[in-house]
TrEMBL record:
Residues 1-20 form the signal peptide. Residues 105-350 form the DUF6754 domain. The chain crosses the membrane at residues 114-132, 336-360. Keywords: Membrane, Signal, Transmembrane, Transmembrane helix. It comes from the Bacteria. It comes from candidate division WOR-3 bacterium. This is DUF6754 domain-containing protein.
Length: 361
């Protein structure tokens, strides 16, 4: 109280050396204001920041507590701003000198994220390396996936029984990764159906996915030399409504009695209804999705399930597309490198005082 009384009596010391500059390494819209603390900082309530567009009429734009010397102000790029800072105690104010005019702008490069840029170059180079060699015919090892090994058996069983194969792409949109992976698998399943002259049924819940799926199936029949066997009515749009789609597919399973059901793509709560109905008909069921909440239902009710990333690997595994194979191998090596770096950094961090964790920021 004595210090406050003396300060009020003899005057409050203002902050000094106030500077303002365009905030570095940002996307614009920000100016940083810095100052040296007032000698009376210990008894202050804090600092008020004032801004002006003409250097004359200042308005308060912010307040921060004592013992703090940096403030970031949100601004409009291209406009010139002037700043000054006031030390505050009760109703007393001690203003600093005003800064010169400052203009904010966006920076092309964020130097604080240069580590991400280097990692992007490394992983991008690895993926491009594997894609290049995959296109030149080099064979890469991919772990066998039980669900995909069963595709041939499933198509063969349907052929022997004279029953159709049902393929559901789920409720995802065409831009979803799970839907894209499912479309790749659909193309290979359609080829086998064409080779064995097995009927394929593919009801869709999205009109765009339906259009793409229809062209993929048609192309698959053409690639194996059976364009005449393609039935345009085998791929069709059912409905966009979730449970109406589930009811429609259930009806197909009960009427057509497919020998094999594929549920590959993005699914919601209808996954259990579909898988349970398919299991009741006695069909072999192969499912695959990256919807974590639906995986337990598929694992329980289906014979084979592609879990998470297995779905993406499956599309590369079954299609042998160089672009997909290269991406899968590149991702595997990327994970190996990240794991190795984390392990080494953890050991260094435990045994030394080097700031190794800063490279992950």
């Amino acid at each position: 109280m004595i210090a406050i009384f003396l300060t009020a009596l003899f005057g409050l010391a203002p902050p000094s050396n106030t500077t303002a500059y365009d905030t570095p390494n940002d996307g614009g819209g920000s100016i940083t204001v810095e100052w040296q603390l007032s000698p009376d900082d210990a008894i202050l309530e804090g600092y008020e920041i004032y801004r002006s567009e003409d250097g004359i009429d200042f308005k308060k734009v912010g307040f921060i507590g004592k013992n703090r010397r940096v403030y970031k102000d949100e601004t409009e790029d291209g406009k010139k701003y002037f700043y000054k800072v006031a030390a505050v105690i009760d109703t007393a104010r001690a203003y600093s000198e005003a800064t010169g005019g400052v203009v904010s702008s966006a920076q092309w490069i964020d130097l604080n994220k240069i580590n991400i840029f280097i990692a992007l170059l490394i992983f991008g180079s690895i993926i491009l390396y594997f894609i290049y060699h995959a296109r030149r015919g080099k064979e890469f090892y991919l772990r066998e996936i039980a669900g995909l090994k069963a595709v041939d058996d499933a198509v063969g069983r349907a052929t022997e029984m004279g029953k159709p194969i049902l393929y559901c792409l789920g409720l995802g949109y065409v831009e979803d990764i799970a839907t894209i992976a499912s479309l790749n698998i659909l193309g290979e399943v359609a080829k086998k159906c064409a080779q064995y002259d097995t009927k394929l049924i593919c009801p869709n819940a999205d009109p765009i996915v339906y259009t793409v799926a229809r062209e993929i199936v048609k192309e698959s029949y053409t690639k194996v030399g059976r364009p005449d066997a393609f039935d345009p009515d085998s791929v069709y749009f059912l409905t966009r409504s979730q449970f109406a789609y589930a009811a429609g597919v259930d009806g197909i399973m009960m009427r057509e009695r497919p020998a094999t059901n594929f549920f590959v793509g993005w699914f919601y709560a209808e996954s259990l209804i579909l898988a349970e109905t398919g299991a009741a008909t006695g069909a072999i069921q192969i499912a695959g999705t990256d919807a974590l909440a639906q995986l337990p239902f598929f694992v329980t009710a289906c014979d084979y399930t592609l879990i998470g990333e297995e779905l993406y690997a499956a599309s590369a595994y079954i299609s042998k597309e160089p672009l997909l194979l290269g991406a899968i191998k590149g991702e595997d090596w990327g994970k190996l490198i990240i794991g190795t770096v984390l392990l080494i950094a953890s050991v260094i961090g435990l045994l030394t005082k080097l700031p190794v964790l800063s490279i992950f920021k």
